[in-house]
Amino acid sequence: MVHAACNGHDELCSRQYSNVSFVGAHDSPFVGPLPQQNQGWSITEQLDNGIRFLQGQTHRAPIFGTLNFCHTSCFLENAGTVRDFLTTVKTWLDANPNEVVTLLIVNGDFVPITDFESEFDGSGITNYTYTPPVSPLAINAWPTLQELITAGTRLVVFIDYGADVTKVPYILDEFAYFFETPYDQTDPTFSQCKIDRPSNATASGRMYLVNHTLSVNLLDLGILIPDRDDAPTTNSPESIEAQANLCSGLYGHNPNVILLDFVDQGDVIGAENGLNSL
Q: Which sequence positions are flagged as catalytic?
């Protein structure tokens, strides 16, 4: 049997999930040219172009009450239902059997976790999800990418608030596993890497997510919007690696996730390959 690469690289097959760096699409469902939209590629295009970490904010839609990907409010930006999003990801996973993908769900309305379970089940994607043998799993106990692929559990799912692994064991508590750096950055040098969430967290034993997204103050009104114009520079390997090096100097290992707007701009996969020494 011919061995297939893991996430496109043989070198990643033997690496534990917790020892891989991923570039991620921040607010991945919100696609288009409007100020509140964060991406230029559709979900399928993001995956086709190498993005393996998708983040998005959910809210309960008014009137119909569906669980949707919405930016701050479903009146401001509504990218459709969670179920449709998951169906799109499942279709892609079906066609790409050697890829491990991560979802980070922002639970904007603190919706009960079993409501998310219904959307996963309804989309048919649940069989792909990874359930740790214990929760939380120690950082050095994660399976390798090859082990996830061999087991068919190629979708790792985190949620920021509302996780309850006694009810839904495959939707993991983000902050039991990660800390995050501050978001809504307006400094294009990204000259800090402090722990922002969870509050009072220590870095020991945690993976971490760096918010490498640049915002601009709209007309000096205090309204921050994604800085689309500077995305090619923000998403350059030089910019990403500079902040990653700052962070690794503080925490002893490279970021596990670099979250980015406009992943169609810059050379984000080149930066990811550099972080993984590929």
A: 26, 71
